[in-house]
Amino acid sequence: MKLRSLLPGFVLVMLVLLAALISYVWTPFDVETLDIRNKLKTPSAEHLLGTDHYGRDILSMLMVGARTSIAVALVAVGIGMGIGVPLGLLAAARRQSWTDELIMRGNDLVFAFPALLIAIMITAVFGAGAINAIIAIGIFNIPVFARLTRGAALSLWTREFILAARVAGKNGFRISIEHILPNITNLLIVQGTIQFSLGILAEAGLSYVGLGAQPPIPSWGRMLAESQTLITLAPHLALFPGLAIVITVLGLNLLGDGLRDWLDPRLRRER
Amino acid sequence: MVCETGSIRGSDVSAETQVTEPLLQLDGVNVQIHGSPILHDISFSLAAGKTLGIIGESGSGKSMTALSVMQLLPRGSDLQGTLRFQNHALHSLSEESLCGLRGSDIGMIFQEPMTALNPVKTIGDQVSESIRLHRRVSTAEATELTAATLERVGLPNSEFPLSRYPHELSGGQRQRVVIAIAVACKPRLLIADEPTTALDVTTQAGILSLLKSLQHDEGLALMLITHDLAVVSNMADDVVVMNKGRVVEQGDLGRVFRRPEKDYTRMLFDASALTQIATRKKHVDDNAVSASASASASASASANANAEGSDATSSLLLRVTDLVCEYPVRHSGWFSRAGSFRAVDSVSFDIRHGENVGLVGESGCGKSTLTRALLGLMKLHSGSIELNGESVSAAREVSRKARQQMQVVFQDPYGSFNPRHKVSRLVNEPLFLLDTKLGKRGASMRVSSVLESVGMQADDADKYIHEFSGGQRQRIAIARALIVQPSLIILDEAVSALDVSVRAQVLQLLDAVGQRQGLAYLFISHDLTVVQRVSDRVLVMQRGQIVERGDTAAVFSNPQHAYTQQLIAAAPRLQLPAEKDE
Amino acid sequence: MFRYAVKRLASLIATLIVASLVVFVVIEVVPGDPASYMLGMNAQPDTVAALRSELGLDLSKPVRYFSWVTGMLRGDFGQSYTYRTPVAGMIADRLWISLPLALYALALSTVIAFPAGIWAASRRGGIADTTVMGFTQLGIAIPNFWFALLLVILFAIKLGWFSAGGFAGWESGAYAAMKSLTLPAVALALPQAAILTRVMRSALLDVLGEDFMRTARAKGLSRRQALLRHALRNAMIPVLTIIGLQFSFLIAGAIIIENVFFLPGLGRLIFQSIAQRDLIVVESVVMLLVFAVVMVTFMVDLAYAWVDPRLRQRL
User: Fold this and answer.
1) Cβ contact B34:B203 at 8 Å
2) How far is Cα C254 from Cα C260, in angstroms, rounded to an integer?
């Protein structure tokens, strides 16, 4: 029933991924060469999406920019999961203890800082760049996954099959890996897609204000920033990077929704 | 009462041949949900002031029938047939008119009292809403009526002011509030869908007697839906037996129970009668047994020693001495002094090899805490547990060898298994306790043999748990408990969640396996009938303490402690109405 | 209830203290000294030293931390290194732009989201539901600063109803001021509204499946009555959580949006101060924003206890 969001989502995401991958071997035009004579052209047969104020082909820039967005968002999710999930499992296994309290308070602390503020602080201190954007977004992802994992794990710990495992002599660590983790994988996959899409938006926002990937690395957010001064002359400069963001995020969200329904144990009878 | 076919009640020539229109009549009701048929050709009727019992196991369609009367079927449902209530044709009324009838002419109460009330509204609000919805009264009058209704259902205003919230009430008390909501506007018909299934035996007795008295005082007709034949036999005038969405049989209670016409009815009755509490009236043999047993029972019951009149030749397996388990409780004072709640208060008992010991108690008596303590899953405050001479204390120190001797079967056939593992992995989990691990082949051979010993097949090991029914899952749970060849199996409400017919089969399996392998059982249940059936000795637990102990037959026929007497008196008995009449 | 509030308050204070430590430590790690930055690379060492002592940069770290914190509690945020004016004044001016903007956006998003979410939940599976869900999917995917650019293209440039940027200033009157905040607020509100609609819808659907809704219908309440009288209040609990969380995103969004519309708000202040190495301003603004987020969370926690009586007893 709801699987109708799975397919379109998958298609859109694949589209963007392919564009990013292909850009490593080929783009319609080279993004590094400037061609001032051709600047600010509207979409045509030659330049499918037009050119910017330096004469660079927008489509090519979008493809290369996709690399940045995807890389940043992906690694940030990796950081969030890699640190957040073990923390959440630990907190649930040691529920009501000091460890649990500590982890929860830590979560609250990070949540008190809007992700952008973290990025601002880090970039103010260490300078702007893609790496710092990754770290900032990653830091914000950690409590998201920690909280999610802890909540799901806590509700599993009271189930009888966990009792059965304890009766079989298994300790908290083993139970977390053998029993808890497999049962929350679905949740994590879905949340992962969501955080991925949030990461794309966050990276775009950071690049827009100049805190993300620096020139000459192309990024969609910075393309939007540069388009602002020329907005009256060439609105298409503002249109296409934004559309790219929307397509990617929309695709990821649809994919996440579709995955959630597809993986829902109540709907599935097999596996 | 006039049955749907127009024939007069069966065998007896009775004075009452009512010609009046029945209060509720269903004719040929068919319900489909999203295309799948749920109810087939349901027809029956109910007269004013009478009680109709609808009996069936899970999945029989009895709840759907009730929802059809209320026209509250889930989305995507399609209903055909006619439902007449007084002079309304329910199947063709507008939603607005139906809303007018619901709560005012027809009331309904449901099974789960713990979740039936809105947690953010007071009980006064929720009851008076019912009144203000259907009657033109001022706020003050509504409040008065609310207070009166709550008193009527056994919740005196002095203890239960209208400003109470549901979470401050127990399950039984919440169910009374639900009843209050349903009867506040004095309906003609009350539909009760498994109203006491989730409640303790004593609470159940209270609710059922409340329903009876309401019926008597207000002339209420009651449609009582339940799977418990004993309850039906105490409450209903007529019964409808349902199975898989069809009416199997219906008629006067006495006739259906004494001379069931259909095999299914017979099977239900037999399965239930198997697990009934022996009353003194029943058979001469039982009388003789209970008479002799009570003599020795009173002698041993008075002695507070641990070893009682069981087989003195089998050796001691489990010895529990002065066990105390506590939970920390935060005080409601300003400075949170950690108080503690004694869940298990100085409990002592023994179990010998091969013995079946039953532990009876209602919810909150501490039996679950006791189970966990025995299994080494929680810290003991004081006291000791010894299994074959080895101590079982705090969770981490329990030796593998000790754990191997003692296994458990839990209550919930759905929740006691990891849904992501195959049956083979589920069943071989306890093999983790073995010092010398079996190889892959060894483990899988053990799994196959133990599955077969519980009546399953070896290739079931490759399936996932959701492919099996409740009864089959409990068999698999038993297999899991057997795989390390323990000496003691703790059965924690192991059959409580199963249908009556399945329950009998599982109990027979436990019997057979126990005999064959010389297992000892600790059978924990709130259900007296089950405990009576399976155990040699019984312990009665109340508020963390063992208040009575002894041979099962003796305790049940001649209970000494007031609480035990209360429990036994409250348990509904399968009474054949013929006994009442003749 | 009182005890619950006190406990939350204690938690709040603890968080603030730790947060202030974090902010201080992170910003103090900055390589690059404000004094030498301000004086340029060719400055004499003793001039730099003199400036440092004037700014109080030569005091030890713990001392500076404490004087900063105690100052903040008094309302004294110190003096900007760059402008030598009280930071408090600079913040106050910008606050009068950023705060109304955030509140305006919050109001817009709730006014749209609540009815939309309720409507979608009550018509679940129907065309209304699918349409609403479709719009929200789109709304979540659109970056708010891009939407802002689009709004500027349409309403400012093509239609000319609004100016493309800048703030009219409160002196010009409330109407003019709010008008210049409208496009920014709409841009900010869009993704928030989309998220909130989804949350409202799913919270309602969850509650509609609860047992007590069955009791409500059995009483004789119509679908609509049951939804409004019973489901809505229970659904507010998760919705409140999300509003609280969203507030922090709202702040972040506001900072970016100000850039699009050239609004002289807190966002501009931060970026300028970073560029100028005016650490005191950066510290203070960040701390202020953290304080705002934590306060909002606290108020949401209090609101919980008001809505859900079960919470009043625990903790």
Assistant:
1) no
2) 10
Q: What number of other Cβ atoms are within 10 A of residue A20's Cβ?
A: 20
The answer to whether B157 and B185 have CB atoms below 8 angstroms apart is: no
Rg (CA), chain A: 22
Interface probe for C, chosen from B109, B118, B162, B179 (most Cβ of C below 10 Å), is: B118
Q: Cα angle vertex A164, ends A159, A170, to 5°? A: 110
Check C308 against B119: CB less than 8 A apart.
Answer: yes
- Please give the single-letter amino acid code of residue B219: G
Cis peptide before A241 (omega within 30 of 0): no
Contact C254, C102 (CB under 8 A): yes
Residue with tokens 């298609």: A11
Distances (CA, A) of B287 to B476, B538, B554, B558: 38, 19, 11, 11
* Number of other residues whose CB lies within 10 A of the CB of residue A69: 28
Q: Do A167 and B403 touch (CB under 8 A)?
A: yes
Q: How far apart are CA A198 and CA C99, in angstroms?
A: 24
Interface probe for B, chosen from A163, A167, A269 (most Cβ of B below 10 Å), is: A167
Residue B172 to chain A, least CA–CA distance (Å): 25
Nearest CA in chain A to C13: A109
Give φ, ψ of B88 to 5 degrees. -105, 140
Closest CA to A255 of C38, C141, B195, B536: C141
Report residue A126: phi and psi, to 5°: -105, 0
Q: Give the whole-angstrom CA distance, residue C90 versus residue C280.
A: 12
A:C CB pairs within 8 Å: 119
Chain B contact set for C219 (CB, 8 A): 102-103, 129-130, 133, 181
Q: What does the block give as tokens for B417?
A: 């298994």
CB contact under 8 A, C14 and A105: yes
Give CA–CA dist B429/A56, Å, rounded.
63
Chain B residue with the nearest C-alpha to that of C315:
B330
Position A181, amino acid: L
Chain B residues in contact with A171 by the CB 8 A cut-off are 396
Q: What is the pLDDT along chain B (582 residues), one digit of tens a residue?
A: 333 343 333 444 444 444 567 889 999 999 999 888 889 999 999 999 899 999 988 888 888 999 999 999 888 889 999 999 988 888 888 999 999 999 999 999 998 898 999 998 999 999 999 999 999 889 999 999 999 999 999 999 888 889 889 988 888 899 999 999 999 999 999 999 999 888 888 889 999 999 999 999 988 999 999 988 888 988 899 999 999 999 999 999 888 888 888 888 888 887 776 555 443 333 333 434 444 344 444 433 333 333 444 444 578 888 888 889 888 776 544 455 567 788 888 899 999 988 899 999 888 788 888 998 888 888 888 888 888 877 777 555 667 788 888 999 998 888 889 988 999 999 989 988 887 888 888 888 999 999 999 989 888 899 988 888 888 999 999 999 999 999 999 999 888 888 888 888 888 898 889 888 889 999 998 888 888 888 899 999 998 899 999 998 888 888 899 999 888 888 877 666 554 443
Query: C252 vs A115: CB contact, 8 Å cut-off?
Result: yes
Chains in contact with B, where contact requires at least 3 CB pairs less than 8 Å apart: A, C
Q: Which of A117, A123, A232 to mutate to test the interface with C (most CBs of C within 10 A)?
A: A117
The Cβ of residue A143 has, within 10 Å, a number of other Cβ atoms equal to 23
Residue B482, CB-side half-sphere exposure with 13 Å CA sphere: 25
Q: The complex's ipTM?
A: 0.84
Compute the nearest-CA separation of A215 from chain B (Å). Answer: 48
Q: Which chains touch C (3 or more CB pairs under 8 A)?
A: A, B
CB contact under 8 Å between A183 and B419, yes or no, is yes
